[in-house]
């Protein structure tokens, strides 16, 4: 057994951190293979017409991913990070095959159930492992790099899948991308990625030594859940903003391709618009994650939610490719301000001894947004139309921004109050 000392920091752990960035890009690519193609597949091959029925795959994906996020946090504390990561990729093996050979819509829904479990286990674990490695000083940058890799791959794969679908048909070509991603990610996770749980334990020892009270280090799962969901203003408002953020993403996944196609756009042009949102989102996080380490978390999150509301209102109003391109880029920019910053907020406030569980609870609520977006978007679109569903999401984004502005305290250690002010359990 190696006795090499554990060191915290991005530079000190650059090789492992970079491997995890690559793995998370492959995690994002598994979602990207579906984004452009599945809504069109539902209409053209499975002849689904009701938006609520069509969005069943987003609903199932969101519920399974949300629930798995919670268990990923607790399991990574109990069994280690690496076994959870490998298990997530094993679950993904059947997904591309099911998407290619499905003869009934139920198979598509079942594939997305497995995909949600895959995403919950793998994405949650790469987040936790990166936070373990970098320590407290560069969390915003770490989360920016993580989420940029994931959503950059969503964008690239969505655009490439749209091109393949236009050239070779909706199946099987786009989903061969996912098959390649699974093979590569499973090999990297098994053979190259190392365990990072000892890094979290090292940080916990340092944190306990520097704080006057260590009462907060021994929290039950219930106490962590209640604190992250309700009682801590930063943790709970971050969870609520995350839910609305992913409601917007779930809505975009299920309804944006249909809205754009209704204007007569070709599949490859629809794919470009669908890809632009996560592309700006992914690239923007390279800057916003690091900026949150300099400027603090709260104002970036508030501004990002308000910008998403404006962008969604614009998408609901316009009807041309250039105007939609502008609006989806704005939506991506608003999401880039929010996404890594919310994760950094959770990591600021949660003690290392229960941080993985708090991340799991946050991601439970955040990814419930997929399901909420599917239900809200489907019902509103069926009752009124696609544009009304987008207007509803814009209104919720505005409310979430107001909630953050009122309730969230600044969590970054150099720019605001630290989490030790909020460690007494009220559950």
UniProtKB/TrEMBL annotation:
Record key words, sorted: Cell membrane, Membrane, Transmembrane, Transmembrane helix, Transport
Cell membrane recorded as keyword: yes
Subcellular location: Cell membrane
Signal peptide from the UniProt entry: none
Stretches of the chain forming a coiled coil according to its record: none
Keyword flag Cell membrane: yes
InterPro entries linked to this entry: MFS (IPR011701), MFS_dom (IPR020846), MFS_trans_sf (IPR036259), MFS_Transporters (IPR050171), Sugar_transporter_CS (IPR005829)
Segments traversing the membrane: 12-31, 51-72, 84-102, 108-129, 141-163, 175-193, 247-267, 273-292, 299-318, 390-409
PROSITE patterns: MFS (PS50850), SUGAR_TRANSPORT_1 (PS00216)
Domain Major facilitator superfamily (MFS) profile: 13-412
Gene Ontology molecular functions: transmembrane transporter activity
Domain of life: Bacteria
Membrane topology: Multi-pass membrane protein
Designated name of the protein: MFS transporter
Organism this protein belongs to: Saccharopolyspora thermophila
